[in-house]
Write a structure and sequence with these properties.
The protein is an alpha/beta fold and 139 residues long. Helix content is 44%, strand content 13%. The protein has 5 helices and 4 strands, in the order H-H-E-H-E-H-E-E-H. A 4-stranded mixed sheet has the order 1-2-3-4, with helices on one face.
């Protein structure tokens, strides 16, 4: 608590490198695309990671709320301006939200959807199946 997020990322990656860790997850949840300071901090985290691992990050998973509709477009646009997004996860597809906007975002950013969230439990995070997703839009 209270530590600079980029410093935490740097320390985490340095420790992972020293301990030959195979996977490191840097969770930057809570970033609001309309808060310039937070977006600048995200860019700083990415830049600091490259000091430890020049090829980092291997994956940037953008998690979007499926119930936000067109606002998700703006979020994706703002995040992609700061970092290279490699995949998407769409949450809250368990209610009335259909998440149809994800098709446009995926197409616009040329980024695949990897996961969908259809509930609150870990078992409700599922691999994305495009055929099932499209079928659900029309049912």
């Amino acid at each position: 608590m209270g530590a600079d997020p980029a410093s935490v990322a740097f320390d985490t990656l340095s420790s992972a490198k020293a301990n030959d860790a195979e996977v490191v997850i840097i969770d930057t949840a809570g970033r609001l695309h309309n808060k310039v300071g937070l977006m600048n901090e995200l860019k700083k985290i990415k830049d600091v990671m490259k000091k430890v691992f020049p090829e980092a990050p291997d994956e940037v998973l953008l998690v979007l709320d499926g119930s936000t509709g067109q606002n998700a477009f703006e979020q994706a646009k703002q995040f992609s301006a700061v970092t290279h997004i490699t995949s998407l996860a769409i949450t809250k597809l368990d209610g009335t939200a259909k998440g149809g906007v994800v098709i446009g975002i995926s197409d616009q950013l040329k980024v695949p959807v990897k996961y969908i969230g259809v509930g609150e439990g870990i078992e409700d995070l599922q691999l994305f199946n495009c055929r099932s997703f499209v079928d659900s839009l029309f049912n």
